[in-house]
């Protein structure tokens, strides 16, 4: 069991994961330069963490509201397409 504090994020997906929860999973499950798949991308927190850790990222999201939110976050932090 991991204890990870959460913080609110304006307009965030209802099931947002804190980066501190995602990071150990990516480090344990993919090599540097590997690809991380998130089939339920939401606002893109997993994409942001994967990119920061030197992984490529593939994500899918059906809800246009969350796609827009991810695009805003992506351009704000300078994540590649």
TrEMBL record:
Organism whose genome encodes this protein: mine drainage metagenome
GO molecular function per UniProt: DNA binding; N-methyltransferase activity
InterPro entries: DNA_methylase_N4/N6 (IPR002941), RM_Methyltransferase (IPR001091), SAM-dependent_MTases_sf (IPR029063)
First-tier enzyme category under EC: transferase
Gene Ontology terms: biological process: methylation
Name recorded for this polypeptide: DNA methylase N-4/N-6
Record-linked Pfam families: N6_N4_Mtase
EC number, UniProt record: 2.1.1.-
All residue ranges annotated as the DNA methylase N-4/N-6 domain in the record: 11-69
